[in-house]
């Protein structure tokens, strides 16, 4: 869906040379043109517009002096460094343009009509006046001569065994004699010059010759091989024309055919059979085809036509038409009308052999034209919903418009057609953001037709519906109407006749203002014209566009692009310079386009497609060359780009690796784009997707997710690029357009969790809006079924970097439960009957499915009498519920509700045998209620509930309860069911295993005195007693000072016989088990009430106060550490900024400044430590303590805080064993509340410290030193400072402070009974 657009034109008028031009050729290396006339040969340079060489052939006798001579061919020979010229009289000349030497290398007495060289310039073919073909080498040595007319078909003659012959076929009403009728051959066309035509295949292996057969008088095409062997002869074609052109790619040979009512361009295969055609837009005998020419890459076919004289004194014209093919349809892309009288009559034209889309034209009045074309996609540039994503395709005098927002119609079909009176050359859409659907059409008569979208007073006959219309179809499309046609008024009418494409790069920038570019005829300059509507033509049917103002620009302008948002206009000059055209200013100035650094932008290579876009907040020029090199400003971003498009804040590109990239330009930089497009960069995000081989971007539908791609053959493919999809969904969600977002996500298989995860707070606040917009039970149920706890914005669809959307609402709450509860409340508020199934789904989808509630609701539906509109029956609800939950699981949960009606309703839907469950249910119905529920819970393996119901059945069921407690280890639950003083409680306590610290331990100790034997004294204690001659008091004092309370109590009991003091000493040392052993050993339970319990409660309070103190200290030090680190970073940044000395010697002082900074960082301690080193170790330790001072503002405050925090964590970690023992004692003496309080406080303290470890101990000194400050934003001073800091910032002795303390999670200290 591309059009050919004029890239630039070059014109050289009034070449000073004698005679009239007859033919021309190109010297590609010198960029010059060789023109032959009846007087000789001249070489001109069209760029500098001068004649470089002139070689007369009349003076040498090769051309007659009367001017009747004719040059039939010119060819530059690179190997000979000369030019080969063939004259009609039969001479073949070699001309050296440097020395002007002429050499006749051969002569044909009968004359030469055609000279044709092979593409590799190894062979030359001459057609003589005696109807022969002579083939010679490049050294002009004859190889062979053949008659141009051959009776044989050729080597590729078809073989037939008689099947399907005409004589054996049925001929209907014509009768059997039709089988034997002789085929009548029509003679050549009246205007045929009867000259042979020769064309070579692109690889030079074959050539074709079109000649008039002397026997039949009709033209035939014969195909010869390189070895001069006849291969095939074309089938008889009536009205075959003389034009002949072999497609360089080798597939088809083009010619023309006159038919009864039309004139076609037909194609032959190599075997001589016809293979396709297309019709020229002329009537029969209206024009003749002078020549057909393929361009170098076989994509464009040029047709040179000339009007036939039909009436006297009629104005005749010559046309050059450019045709392309796509999806097996031939499009007329350009039509250039020339006059046949005077200087503008075309003498010859040819495609450039090197530049595929460059066409050279030579006119009779020594007027040379050169046109450069390039492919472009004409699409509307709006970015709102009113833009219909129009794409216009030129096809002769028709414009095929496809509206991609409403329908994707494959070419050559379209949504609607615009019919113009003349062939169309250029299409432009309005640059106004709100009128982007309006388009203007420039035709071959230099007339602009403006079509506008809107209400039309009448039906426009020039607008015809395409593939979307038909009988019985209602058309919802609003087609444009012809608003007005304007004729461009030239200052010099001769310009229009000589150069039909005088104006190019037409751009519609304002309602009644067009910009156009023309090129100077005498100098390398361009002129920008403002075309405005003439005031007198405002109300006329045919208006006029006058050139109101013009601006001359140095250089040849090759592209012009306009930004519809900023109204900026950028011009590209042939040298690569980018200019900004201030078209809205009164002065109409042109200034260089500058990059963010303030330097003028210049493309290294000319770009055929340019766009303006905002990249990182700066307006930049984007360019793509015909060699697939992509530039942003003057930076090459990639070299494998086949097409690109800019939409809103996105840049979309297709590459040679068959991928499509989509980048957000809002916060992008050139380096990120280069990294994203580099071949070594592996991207698996949303910005990359695979596409079909050779895909090119056609357009992007604004405010939608559709990206239209076209394949090489011409067919279309619609893809929804993930980046566009997610961006559009985020926009819809931000605008609370839940329905559009949901439909898009459902259709494109985007996880529906994104609706909530994009902005949880906003979604939960607008749940009712979501339900009212969706308004579909099935869609809401679909949303429920896709819910999961995962945050898809962190895993599947990470948001853009600059996104400020709240990512999570409540980290402690469960996402699925929050959504289910919020939506259920909203649905019950909107219409509980309509959304009954969705309400049931919300219960089932919770983290813990609420199946009992669901079954109860279904049971309520069964009991409801009066029908309610939109209500759901119990049968339908239960059937739907079975889709979500396994029927056996639902049966068990229904049984757990103890509602037998509900159980029967579910059982009927299951696969259970009624013979199995009916007796079971009947047995349950006969039981007492509590025992019935116990039986059900035991059947469902809900043993906690089972013993609860069994405990209410009476004492006769207690043995069964005890057995169940033992079997299922339900001691914790059992002790909660009975009062502590009851007999059942004591039995349950006695049956409790002794391995666990339970309350039964007190009962065992109270009834029996089976205690352990006293442990033997430790060997070290025995040595101490035997070696020291000390009294008991001195020994007890030393042991207590060393906190060896157990050893001191052993001395008191064994040697001093004072067990009461021993118990007090054990209580002081928190040796609770040993103290209880002594109490029961000496049978003193009164000590428990007087001393043990008060000591335990006091210890619990001390632990609580200590934990509060540790928590407060930890939080205070942590907060201060963060502040200190932030202040140090700020100071370091300021230090780096001020580090480099100013002045002319800054480079000389860079190293010394780094050294100074390193010494400054070490501070005064480097000197003080040297003085302290001579002192004692006590003073050194004092200095170390003084260095790690917690005083605010001290140099190493951060290290001191790290040390203090490490001490707090380690001290708390060591308390685990003590906490474990006191928790057991608290539980033993029924201080459950105090135990729970202490356990909760200790757990909170540990969690606080564990969560804070990564925040406090971020990097070790080795890690921090291994990552110096490097990168694009670093300077030499900052890098040196980072390496200096690596050496001097952290002393070796302090390195252990950067190692975080360890918290052992495996240490068991909690009591499950206190949870």
Overview of this protein structure:
This protein is 31% helix and 26% strand. With 1315 residues, the chain is an alpha+beta fold. Strand 10 and strand 11 form a beta hairpin. Helix 7 packs across helix 9, helix 23 runs antiparallel to helix 24 and helix 31 runs antiparallel to helix 33. It is elongated, with a radius of gyration of 49 Å. The two termini are 72 Å apart.
Task: Quickly describe the structure.
This protein is an alpha+beta fold and 1315 residues long.
- Number of helices in the DSSP assignment: 35
Low-confidence stretches: 804-811, 994-1030, 1139-1175, 1260-1268, 1286-1290
Q: What portion of residues is helical?
A: 25-40%
Q: Which structural class matches the secondary elements?
A: alpha+beta
Beta-strand segment tally: 56
Tell me the overall shape.
elongated
Query: Into which percentage range does the β-strand content fall?
Result: 25-35%
* Main sheet: strands, sense, barrel: 8 strands, mixed
- Numbering strands along the chain, what is their spatial order in the largest sheet? 33-34-35-37-41-40-39-38
* N-end to C-end Cα span: 72 Å
Q: Cα-atom Rg, whole angstroms?
A: 49 Å
Mean pLDDT: 81
